[in-house]
Amino acid sequence: MGSYAVKKIGVIERYQEFLPVTEKTPIISLNEGNTPLILAEALPCELGLKDVRIYYKFEGLNPTGSFKDRGMTMAISKALEEKATAVICASTGNTSASAAAFAARSGLKCYVLIPEGKIAKGKLMQAYRYGAKVIMIRGNFDQALKLVREIGEEGSVTIVNSINPFRIQGQKTAAFEIIDDLGDAPEYHVIPVGNAGNITSYWLGYQEYKKAGKSKVLPKMLGFQAAGAAPIVHGHPVEKPETIATAIRIGNPASWKSAEAARDESGGLIEAVTDEEIGRAYRFIAERDGVFAEPASAAAVAGFIKLAKRNYFKPKTKIVITLTGSGLKDPDYALSFDDPIESVEPELEAVKEIMEK
Ligand code: F0G
Description:
By secondary structure, the protein is an alpha/beta fold. Helices cover about 40% and strands about 15% of the residues. It contains 15 helices and ten strands. The chain has helices at about 10-15, 40-45, 70-80, 95-105, 120-130, 140-155, 165-170, 175-180, 195-210, 230-235, 255-265, 275-290, 295-310, 330-335, 350-355, and strands spanning about 35-40, 50-60, 85-90, 110-115, 135, 160, 190, 220-225, 270-275, 315-325. The strands form two sheets. It has a six-stranded mixed β-sheet, sandwiched between helices. Strands 5-4-3-6 form a four-stranded parallel β-sheet. α3 runs parallel beside α4, α8 (about 175-180) crosses α9 (about 195-210) and α12 (about 275-290) crosses α13. It is globular, with a radius of gyration of 20 Å. Ligand F0G binds near residues 66, 92, 198 and 294. Ligand F0G binds near residues 66, 93, 193 and 198.
């Protein structure tokens, strides 16, 4: 070994004083976290917003391509500390990919229950290739989570969905990073809401860091659900949730109450955006700001655009939008738009003709 001194560390090592770990906790990490805050340029320009700063917290750059890795390093490390032998989760895709990766690294067996036909191909591929036992349910996420709870109650398998409190603990580190980078919390935090663990985690993180004297501001938490899967917005569960943003295709979120608390305590809101708005936002940030996030992440951008058009944001403020997962996760959606990729014979004229179109 040479004197290679750069040591990238994961969220447990970086924030251990704020996390329920001890020297005895075996840390299973993939160097998750430490994701960038990318300044949005085209977005404020397009909306005519001159005196606000908008940042994308790009969680798609985590080791398995979503924010879930922050919570999973905690959940898997604690499962190992507590001498578990197997873990299980229900998932719309990203949780299963992350659970499978961290379980692989830890030696724990991993079972994932996913809604058949309703998860993005990249996520299914990840869970499968990291070696989890993938079980497809002919039903939706809510039904899969109910089954997982029942199996968890039997006691031999540890649940690593966000009903596992260690997941929320790990995920709150994203708020810490934002404050560490900006020097304070932003005035507004925009985030997609599915099972509602992440909005809960950020709010916890922002509050804890403020209590520790690391920040002065608490952001308003602005959550967005897909219109066809918006139980918190409607105030009742949705039996058959439907949206192209399959990651947030959830009708009965586990952290419903704490998401409402985050909304109300912060003076924020939780609203819905349509699939069409999600699609437009998805394309805009990729085509104009060069940031490729998955449809569920674009729900937050769509929500931001909606609020900006209502003149919701105060001038001279900072706004952070969490882009929860990578656009690479969902190739089918990426290629589903009606601007076809053309094919031609390998001839100069033919290529030029298309270039000039
Ligand atoms: N964005 C992405 C990309 C997600 O995968 C999820 C949730 C969310 C947003 C919503 O976060 O559930 O904490 O409110 N995905 C879960 C999963 C449900 O199984 O991967 P949340």
